[in-house]
Design a protein that fits this description.
By secondary structure, the chain is α+β, with helices and mostly antiparallel strands. Helices cover 19% and strands 34% of the residues. The two termini are 33 Å apart.
Length: 499
Amino acid sequence: MQLLVTSTRVPRRAGMLVGVLVLAAAAVQVWAQAPASDGEAAEYAESLSRAFRQAATKVLPTVVTIKTSANAREMRGRGGMPEGVNPFEGTPFEEFFGDQFDRSMVPRREGLGSGVIIDPEGVVLTNNHVVAGMDSVIVELSDGRELTASEIQMDPASDLAVLRIPDAGQLPAAVLGDSDQLQIGDWVLAVGSPFGLEKTVSAGIISAKGRSLQAAERAQFLQTDAAINPGNSGGPLVNLRGEVVGINTAIASGSGAYQGVGFAIPANLVKWISEQLVREGRVQRSYLGVKARALTPDIAEQFGGQVGQGALVQEVMPGSPADDAGLQFGDIITMLQQVPIRGPGELQQTVEKIAVGTAVTVTILRDGQPQEVTVTLGDLSATAAEEQVPGRAPQRAPAATEMEKAMGISVQDLTAQLADQLGYAERTSGVLVTAVDGSRPAAAGGIARGMLILKVRKTEVLTVEQFRKALESESLERGIPLLVATPNDQRLVVLKSSR
């Protein structure tokens, strides 16, 4: 069964279909230091129950239900004309064609999500996907009042949004905790309105940290097994002190409902984003201008680094701050402002939170030797256009060489026609993989038919001739690093013969 990562906003109609939500109590098993008696065991379980109860009592008054709706809209056809509108209206031909152009509408949409009050003056935090594209956003408070939200500020990159509810008086507000202190195995509560069932609390643990999701590219998520279902989106994830340590956002599910894996945006990222949304109405992020990847054992061996200690630069964007500072493909970024960097996600989050225009010291390993480079960070919202590859006349490759046979690939120059067919519209040259032998290192390394090979180790290859020249000094026993591309992504792979 394929698992799908999905948001947890629910259509309001779905709430009417669910009469009962069964909450499963968490079972506590003490293996190493079991209580000496039944009385001690009961007291231990009761103390945990009290902790859950106190945390829920503290946060529940701050949790809100968010009811949204989008009005019916005309469907637009070509040229921007509403689909279903008779183009002959007002002419002698109107009566002949009127029945064929009944007005077509996108139906009215209604949704339901959760949120949490983070300021007594009426500032509410929720998910961007709960409120995006909606014409009406109603916030239902814990005391039953329903108020219309105003000044909705959204950050799609993190899937966070901030709402204001005016004239609500002084409201109970949640405390945002320190998500960096969370450890895998810590107890947490998920609070919200799953399936429209308001004030629902479920318990679980932090099951992982630093997860990445395509739905929110600028966030590293907490993973939890606390039950999160449609309708929980935007609600808080709470520690046993009643502090908000995350905002529930998505689930991984094959059915669209809870299957034990949920995701929340960490509170420390929430603080940084919400403060900017409240103050500026937007989030300003800094950037280096590199695409980086984690150091696997093979990649670390090839570029002189250590697994878990740095991020490998696999692409430098032309005209970016990194390009201006001289960063190169194959550099391993190990520290930023003397702060250790353990991977690409940590690099991204560290850079983004530094003020735009700051000159930072980047410590790198280049060819195994440490160096320091000064980079003046740019504004991510003003990022330069994507790299353009200069065109050249394509040449079809002759028969595969012995090295290509050993690698298990066939290649040819990229033609304009193939670039258009395969979705490489921005590229007019490159080394196109036309076949892969499933028993050879290329297949084992993730190479697939239709990929482009951009570099061999640090050497750029725009033609098959350049590709073969670059391979002359390589061996599969030592490992061959290749930078490859698909129409939507680039990544570094290392091809190596099995030992």
